[in-house]
Amino acid sequence: MITAEKKARFNEIIGNIYKTNITKGIGTYQEKTLHKVIKNFYEAKEEYQEVKINGYVADIFKDNRIIEIQTRSFNKLRDKLEVFLKDYNVNIIYPIAYKKYISWLDLETGEEKDFRKSPKTGSIYDCIFELYKIKKYLNHPNLKITLLFIDLKEQRLLNGWNQTKKKGAERFNQIPLELIDEIEINNYNIFIPFKNQEFTSIDYQKAIKRNLHCAQVSLTILNYLDVIEVVRKEKRRNVYRLKKLNS
């Protein structure tokens, strides 16, 4: 649960870090703002940040626990998890844009242009494709996953392939604006929007308000984790139900 004190501390960190990063130009190496804010939110002392462990660098290592902040592509985590989970408790922090505002940066001047709000609102299902990449570890007793919902501004470079240079534009930075919620995934039943009824992938898609591919990947994960089971086929579609042992 996000308290007023946590929100205030998060906002203070945003201000301090954004003032530092904003002075660095496009093309200059820098730790991205979102990653740095979250890292300092969970651990302010640098002595516990970027710690080398068994050939890999942990974002945070304190009290024999590891925190990994992954803003994209869980593929990069697989090798780390293979090593870290043998000896340590690992908490993966995955930020999700609750409300996202988009702007474009001119490559020559660095000027910010065409600020707009994305119509999409973030949900827990926005982590599904990333969870699939590490599904073999999801039931590991030493692994915990925390979803951090944040209102943020996404800056994109005007380097796309169409006339406006926006199509296919590269994401440059994500700047957190406000901390909204923190959800720890302690039970994968959280991804089941039904109680006792049977359901298909189409039913599931409608309930989670995401596309069919997302629904199918989610059901693949839940089936793999024995959260759900296939009870029969109906018009070539699997019909699922929540397993009693997980209810």
Short account of what is shown:
The protein is of the alpha+beta class and 247 residues long. Helices cover 25% and strands 35% of the residues. It contains 6 helices and 9 strands.
Structure description:
Strands 1, 2, 3, 4, 5, 6 and 7 form a 7-stranded mixed beta sheet that branches. A two-stranded antiparallel sheet has the order 8-9. A hairpin with a 2-residue loop joins β2 and β3. α1 packs across α2 and α5 crosses α6. The protein is globular. With 247 residues, it is α+β, with helices and mostly antiparallel strands. The protein starts with a helix and ends in a 5-residue tail after the last strand. The longest helix is centred in the first third of the chain and has 18 residues.
